[in-house]
Amino acid sequence: MSKQIILLTNLGSPNSTSVKDVRRYLNEFLMDERVIDLPFIGRFLLVRGIISPFRAPKSAAKYRTIWTDEGSPLIVITNKLAKKVEKVAQRPVYFCMRYGDPTPMSVLKRIESEHPDAEEVILFPLYPHYAMSSYETAVAHVENVYNEGRFKFRLKTTAPYYNHSKYIHSLAVTIRPYLEDQQYDQVLFSYHGVPERHILKSDATGSHCLKGQDCCSVASPAHATCYRHQVFETTRLVARELGLSDDRFTLSFQSRLGRDKWLSPATSDVLTHFPEKGIKKVLVVSPAFVSDCLETLEEIHVEGRETFMEAGGKKYDTVPCLNDNDMWAQAVAELCL
């Protein structure tokens, strides 16, 4: 058997909670043409001149509320997961970030130095669903760096696993104890939002996505790269495994940026209107994130709770991400091999 190395890749994090480091991170993240898909000049003026200067101090304050003694939760969790996957897979496992450190180039060079006999590196994006601003940009970036470095080993990328039984089962197992111990009026599946234009740009057929209310349920080649279809499918499969009837769960999208039309409904709007519909006890799950980060620990756990309780909610709980739990580490190892 050829010598294989596993490389996990995640979103990334500032190096610290200082405004300077957060601004640097935001600049790199938001200047990505797959995140804000405007021409370079327009993107540069928007990010460097408006978003980053105003958002960095606010984001830095939020990062301080979730930062641990070990550092960034996302970095710490990804590192722990890599070590567990390594034990299960019995292969060397490394990790890199799309934005920030450790960079793909630095990690690929480490692999080359520490494993000169490596024949294949299996890239595993820690993104279950295909989206321009997550899976696609991470894969494209690592592949570009790989080609630039002219490494001797092969690079193989795993496909999105939004409907894979191992991922679905891992999610269901983390959610089930909450449903057994508590009574909730509704389970809210909150996914990271994307602009509708990203869905249209990712439609390989150019004629399917967002062309009708049932486009995500009508079979199409477009589904291979359709984020909307894939999050719908994840939700359906997890709900089925948990035995949730259609009236027991809701799907929404969080983390909007700008004034363009994004996928809806927005998580904040759903949480605001739940109580007036008699939904007073809510359990929130964030399946698009496999590692807890600012969007789950602060936006969902803190801001989401405030929104819901101020609107009249009585009970609000959140399910941690898969993080480094043993079943998920086993699933990652199997998905890579």
Describe this structure in words.
It is a single chain. The chain is α/β, with parallel strands linked by helices and 337 residues long. It has eleven helices and eight strands. It has two domains: 4-161 and 326-336, 3-Layer(aba) Sandwich (Rossmann fold); 165-318, 3-Layer(aba) Sandwich (Rossmann fold). Strands 2-1-3-4 form a four-stranded parallel β-sheet, sandwiched between helices. Helix 4 crosses helix 5 (132-149) and helix 6 packs across helix 8. The protein is globular and about 60 Å long. The N and C termini lie close together (12 Å).
Comma- or semicolon-separated keywords:
11 helices; 14% strand; Rossmann fold; alpha/beta; 2 domains; 337 residues
Helix and strand layout, with pairings?
Blueprint: E1 4-12, H1 19-30, H2 40-66, H3 73-89, E2 93-99, H4 104-114, E3 120-125, H5 132-149, E4 154-157, H6 165-181, E5 186-192, H7 196-201, H8 227-242, E6 249-254, H9 267-273, E7 281-285, H10 294-310, E8 315-318, H11 326-336
Parallel strand pairs: 1-2, 1-3, 3-4, 5-6, 5-7, 7-8
Helix pairs in contact: 1-2, 3-11, 4-5, 6-8, 9-10
| Fold-level CATH name of the largest domain | Rossmann fold
Name the poorly predicted regions.
Answer: none
List the quaternary state of the chains. single chain
- Give the end-to-end Cα distance, rounded to a whole number of Å: 12 Å
Number of strands: 8
Helix-residue proportion:
40-55%
Strand order of the largest sheet: 2-1-3-4
Number of domains: 2
CATH class placement of the largest domain: Alpha Beta
What is the CATH architecture term of the largest domain? Answer: 3-Layer(aba) Sandwich
Mean pLDDT: 96
* Largest sheet report: 4 strands, parallel
Rg estimate, integer Å = 20 Å
Helix and strand composition category: alpha/beta
Strand content: 5-15%
Summed up, the helix count is 11
- Outline type: globular
